[in-house]
Design brief:
alpha+beta, five-stranded antiparallel sheet, 8 helices, globular
Length: about 325
């Protein structure tokens, strides 16, 4: 366990906000976390890689961070085609994806290069290129931050939906994720229909999960800024899901509008709408919209959180005025 006072959170948020935590504690096991809990008082925030946070100022409380590591293949295996893998919440997400691909296990290769840690995958229900974390999560182990007791959540208990979970709603801030168990495929079923994966793969006949991972990495690197070079939190906005009636009315006006059929309606890319409003590559003060992906807001250098929020609010208003659709930040404002 490591504990610091007046601790800089600069390396714990990808937006590059130079803010401090009154107290910062990092733990390596569930037992260490349980020992820490009785010492907590005041506000408590649990962070991962900080890729989904925008700090509005110094945090006057305790920031917790998990350094629980380890990737364990569980026995016995339920059937010949699948394997259960239990992963520590502090493992870097893309390190886990790389491990899975190296082992020839499919199911998470489409989620390559998503920033953050394993614990966040269960909270945020991360997703990309036709795959969501909920598709492979079997169970989530967590510790109550108020009682110190352990609870195991099934996939159903987590109440997953698009970019949502019980940990972002009813139980927000109440549990710290310690381990996540995933079901991976020994005989991978490739998902290549989303985005331009096939175009990147070209005419390759025998496509492997390693090929898919590399294609996803190439796509993401081509259109997303490196937070170490330019502060950002990846996709700042969630893609809205609208009713079929709303979609059909918009399609008459915008016949080239991209869309994706989902269970509860039609998903329209927020980035496309933002671009149609003229924001791609534009700036408001020291906060801007990335010139290659309009879904990404960037810190152009020295931007304050208020400047980024002002840009966010202005974009949301413009999208609503043009399309009659509310878009919402995926990033958490702290």
């Amino acid at each position: 366990m490591r504990e610091y006072n007046n601790y800089s959170l600069l390396k714990h948020n990808t937006f590059g906000m130079d803010v401090k935590a009154k107290r910062y504690v990092e733990y390596d096991s569930e037992e260490e976390l349980q020992d820490i809990l009785p010492t907590l008082c005041g506000a408590v925030l649990h962070v991962g890689g900080g890729s989904n946070l925008l700090f509005r100022g110094d945090y006057d409380g305790t920031v917790l961070h998990s350094d629980i590591s380890g990737i364990e293949v569980l026995k016995p295996i339920e059937n010949a085609d699948e394997v259960l893998v239990r992963v520590g919440a502090g493992v870097v997400w893309d390190d886990f994806v790389a491990w899975a691909v190296e082992q020839g296990l499919g199911g998470v290769e489409n989620l390559s290069l998503i920033p953050g840690e394993v614990g966040a995958s269960a909270v945020q229900n991360i997703g990309a290129y036709g795959v969501e974390a909920k598709d492979v999560i079997v169970q989530v182990e967590a510790i109550s931050l108020t009682e110190g007791t352990k609870r195991i959540f099934s996939n159903e208990d987590c109440k997953y939906s698009y970019r949502q979970s019980v940990f972002k709603k009813e139980l927000k801030g109440q549990y710290a994720i310690t381990y996540v168990t995933y079901c991976l495929q020994k005989v991978p079923v490739l998902k290549l229909e989303y985005g331009n994966i096939k175009a990147v793969l070209g005419e390759k006949k025998e496509v492997t999960i390693a090929d898919v991972r590399q294609a996803i990495i190439d796509i993401r690197k081509a259109k997303l800024p490196n937070p170490e070079v330019q502060g950002n939190a990846g996709s700042f906005f969630m893609n809205p899901v609208v009713s079929r009636e709303k979609f059909l009315s918009l399609q008459k006006v915008y016949p080239q509008m991209p869309y994706y059929e989902v269970a509860d309606g039609v998903k329209i890319p927020a980035g496309w709408m933002i671009e149609q409003c003229g924001w791609k590559g534009k700036a408001l003060g020291r906060a801007g919209v990335h010139d290659k992906q309009a879904l990404v807001l960037v810190n152009l250098g020295g931007a304050t959180s208020d400047e980024i929020i002002r840009l966010c609010d202005t974009i949301c208003k413009d999208v609503y005025d043009k399309f009659g659709i509310h878009i919402h930040p995926e990033v958490n404002l702290i």
